[in-house]
Amino acid sequence: MLIARRTLIAVLAVGAVAGCTSDDEADRPPVVQLGPPGETGTPLTDDELTGLDQPQYTDADVAFVQGMIQHHAQALVMTDLVVERAGSDDLPLMAERMDVSQRDEIALLEEWLETRGEDVPDASGEHHEHGEDGQVMPGMLTDDDLARLAAATGRDFDELFLLYMIRHHEGALVMVGELLTAGEGGQESALFQLAQHIDSDQGIEIARMKSLLAEIAASPGS
């Protein structure tokens, strides 16, 4: 799962605020600059906060967002196959929820790029394996994989879909992890929150898919 983000500034909530302050000031937690290990942090004043340089987005952030849009787009190609091919009553509902979450995240990723004047990639799902940089993205299905999935029906489709989508989602987690550990991106606040959201969402869906796959494997006819 998501690796903890190392940062200089931490927001700490406190139960009470000393002195006479307005309601707004009393409700606002102090921002503390973390000290060395074993030492206490130092609360920052409003003037000090104003002077802090906020992390800016990087080329690595742009490449991550553009790649994740195409990664999510392929998931939509896969969920579109479910209704006409699924054998399990549970899979269509799961796929529908997955479809909604992927579309919502694509919209957020596109907005992030548009706000910063960066190119928004094609989200049709027609470009399968490679990101904007030409590299194969983790977890992406090949054309042969998609053809095999499209040719399957019933129980065979259910098992293959879940295996492929688990792999696909795990690939998205790899992309998030690489962004946050390579040291070239993931520090801009909005981008970090997007990466966190994707990591959490994909992790939850992986757990659900593994549970359904186990149920199907244990059902009669296995």
TrEMBL record:
Organism expressing this protein natively: Jiangella alkaliphila
Biased composition range(s): Basic and acidic residues: 119-133
InterPro entries, A to Z: DUF305_CopM-like (IPR005183), Ferritin-like (IPR012347)
Source lineage: Bacteria, Bacillati, Actinomycetota, Actinomycetes, Jiangellales
Official protein name in the record: Uncharacterized conserved protein, DUF305 family
DUF305 domain boundaries: 61-213
Region (Disordered): 22-53, 119-138
